[in-house]
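debug: dumping io for the single-chain case to check the tokenizer round-trip. Nothing else runs in this session.
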Amino acid sequence: MGGTVAARMLLSRAALMEVRYEISVVVPFADDEEAIGTAIQRIAEHLRNLDRPFEILAVDEDSCDNSHAVLALLRAQVPELRVVHAPGRGRGTDAGASRAQGRVLWIIDPDVALGTLAPAGPAVDLVTAGTVDAVVVHGHFIIANRVRALPSIAGLRGSRDARRRRLARRLAAHGLRLDVQMIGAAPPPRARLFGLLAPRRAGAPSPRAS
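debug: decoded output
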């Protein structure tokens, strides 16, 4: 137990030393040539409107199509983009987070980035302010304090929805304060818990941190 705590402390200190941006976006991709270009452009435009320094890490999970060619064409338009490689499929979040240098991680898949990105700005504000450690937008993306989230991300595997659900459970298991949201759905009739079981609608008032 002591060894695990010590390892996490060393990981957190190393991560703090590498902070260069406000936001690091991790975009795992495989055979996503039809989505990856538009996804990266939309994310970059959205973050520029937030007026915060950012980087985008497109993480290759053994892509076999023209995704790399599409990304190469974007380099002049999106200088914040870096392409890195994961050890295999399902390992993109782990590989991207370990190379990220931002205070806040935004983990999102290319197909999801074609939809609404509106909850991202308020989620970044919540995490940056320390109100919560992570915002889980069900079915869409996760935004988290990078240093606090790294122990939960280490060794994470899985694809898309399964990976997001697994990461949300890990974040909760590690004791991080979560704000769980749903887009375009009414809140559940029961009282919302500050955890994974009762998500709130994106844009609804946020709970105060205890």
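debug: round-trip ok. The radius of gyration is 16 Å.
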